[in-house]
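Cross-check.
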Amino acid sequence: MKPPIVGVANAQDRPKSKYRNVRTSGHASKKEARRANELRLLEATGKIRNLREQARYEILPKQTGERAIYYVADFVYDIKTPYWTPERDKYVGAWQTVVEDTKSPITRRNPVYVIKRKLMLWWHGIRILET
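Predicted model, tokenized:
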């Protein structure tokens, strides 16, 4: 029997994820990878534009002796939202930026995430879409 190679872990040797997510194609979970594929399709069809993944926002700036605090959004994109214009008497579209985070019911209640979500609303005026 060969001795195990040091530093290489088998799948069964790895510790379980805290929330039981499985990293898939560079994303933190299968759900996030699935949503990324959906958004790429929407961008290809022109329904959304400027899709960015893992976009970083500063929510508290650096202070003396302290590092800055950031929120990293899973997805940021622009979506066309219709609105009524009385002068044209029809609906027209305006592009609006959406900040989206893929969350499970358990991770939505994570205290660190809740604080960062509230700081994003207070500091940047951005309400995070949780999918």
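The first strand starts at residue 48 and ends at 60. DSSP finds two helices and four strands in the chain. Passed to J.P. for a second look.
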